[in-house]
């Protein structure tokens, strides 16, 4: 019954609450991620909590990988070493389960298919790079190099990744793999191997070569949708990858393309700060529900682009998206399985992660709030 009650609350607006301080929202989110780690049989982070099934799902290597830098950042910002300790255990676990060829497996730890996949491997790079830079642990450097070398070997000459797609998605050649290129940038920054940066640039060049005149990227969703729509989640992945590879490689043309895409997404932001879950190739939308992860990811993109381009007008889009997600983060419930977490969709019965609280929604929520805090503290934008 809990999932039915949550749908009713969401649709009536009863799940929206007054926003508290960023610190309160961050603490609740960070604590939920630690609970999600404790709720598994290992040191990975549970994929999600399912309110309909009332259970935690198994650890998810892909997103555990990029939760690691979030917890290191939070531990540093708030002088809270217990979160860094959790990140360390996550990284050790990632190294323990790394596949023999260097890749990272698709799906959760209880998935029937065990196979390495490009995107999941690209996301694990963030964790190994951050943990190595924070600890100097040689095992993490070795894991990072093995995984990045595997990605290099799997890349086609034109920069695309066509082999090792996820067996759990229907889209097989993905524009959002620029996010894996961003992971290779982090590997380059951690170990200094320029081959990783060059491969990242090649992938972004290939991705942008396929763009429509209006900046829309094909094959930019988890599924091959007949109407060619794409989730804000995967659109935001692709924007961040293009942007950060552009920064690392000193490619202002990449940054300009990311800026254009981010501005097109902003045109559909609702008055309450949320974004529609799906966009069409004309940058319009056909749905009213929101993908919560996409809101946070776009807040990050807008803030990064404001920082780099000097376009202070982007900050308001980011703050509005952050405030919407803060308003639907439940800080009052007695149910610790969802307190401080972010839903996959709002309302919770939207078609992305239906009835679930995926760990990456909370991870990106934290990243968006911490980046906003950084801007407020240093006042580095007009």
From TrEMBL:
<dbReference type="Pfam" id="PF09492">
    <property type="entry name" value="Pec_lyase"/>
</dbReference>
<dbReference type="InterPro" id="IPR012669">
    <property type="entry name" value="Pectate_lyase"/>
</dbReference>
<dbReference type="InterPro" id="IPR008928">
    <property type="entry name" value="6-hairpin_glycosidase_sf"/>
</dbReference>
<protein>
    <submittedName>
        <fullName>Pectate lyase</fullName>
    </submittedName>
</protein>
<dbReference type="GO" id="GO:0016829">
    <property type="term" value="F:lyase activity"/>
</dbReference>
<keyword id="KW-0456">Lyase</keyword>
């Amino acid at each position: 019954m809990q999932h039915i009650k949550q749908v009713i609350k969401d649709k009536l607006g009863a799940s929206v609450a007054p926003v508290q301080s960023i610190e309160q929202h961050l603490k609740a989110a960070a604590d939920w991620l630690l609970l999600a780690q404790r709720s598994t049989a290992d040191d990975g982070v549970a994929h999600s909590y399912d309110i309909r099934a009332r259970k935690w799902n198994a650890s998810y290597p892909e997103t555990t990988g990029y939760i690691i830098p979030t917890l290191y950042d939070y531990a540093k910002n708030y002088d809270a070493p217990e979160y860094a300790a959790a990140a360390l255990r996550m990284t050790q676990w990632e190294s323990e389960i790394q596949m023999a060829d260097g890749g990272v497996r698709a799906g959760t730890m209880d998935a029937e298919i065990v196979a390495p996949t490009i995107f999941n491997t690209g996301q694990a790079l963030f964790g190994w790079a951050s943990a190595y830079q924070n600890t100097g642990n040689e095992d993490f450097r070795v894991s990072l190099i093995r995984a990045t070398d595997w990605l290099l070997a799997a890349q086609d000459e034109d920069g695309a990744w066509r082999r090792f797609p996820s067996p759990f998605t229907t889209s097989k050649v993905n524009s959002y793999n620029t996010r894996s290129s961003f992971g290779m940038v982090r590997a380059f920054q951690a170990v200094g191997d320029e081959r990783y940066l060059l491969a990242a640039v090649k992938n972004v060049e290939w991705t942008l070569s396929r763009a429509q005149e209006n900046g829309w990227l094909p094959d930019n969703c988890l599924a091959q949708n007949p109407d060619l729509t794409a989730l804000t989640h995967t659109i935001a992945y692709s924007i961040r990858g293009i942007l950060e590879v552009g920064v690392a490689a000193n490619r202002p043309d990449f940054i300009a393309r990311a800026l254009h895409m981010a501005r097109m997404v902003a045109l559909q932001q609702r008055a309450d700060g949320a974004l529609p879950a799906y966009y069409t190739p004309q940058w319009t939308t056909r749905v009213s529900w929101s993908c919560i992860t996409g809101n946070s990811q776009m807040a990050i993109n807008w803030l990064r682009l404001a920082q780099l381009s000097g376009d202070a007008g982007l900050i308001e889009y980011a703050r509005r998206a952050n405030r919407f997600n803060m308003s639907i983060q439940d800080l009052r419930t007695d149910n610790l399985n969802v307190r401080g977490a972010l839903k996959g969709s709002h309302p919770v019965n939207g078609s992305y992660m239906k009835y679930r609280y995926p760990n990456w929604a909370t991870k990106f929520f934290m990243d968006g709030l911490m980046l906003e805090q950084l801007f407020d503290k240093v006042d580095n934008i007009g």
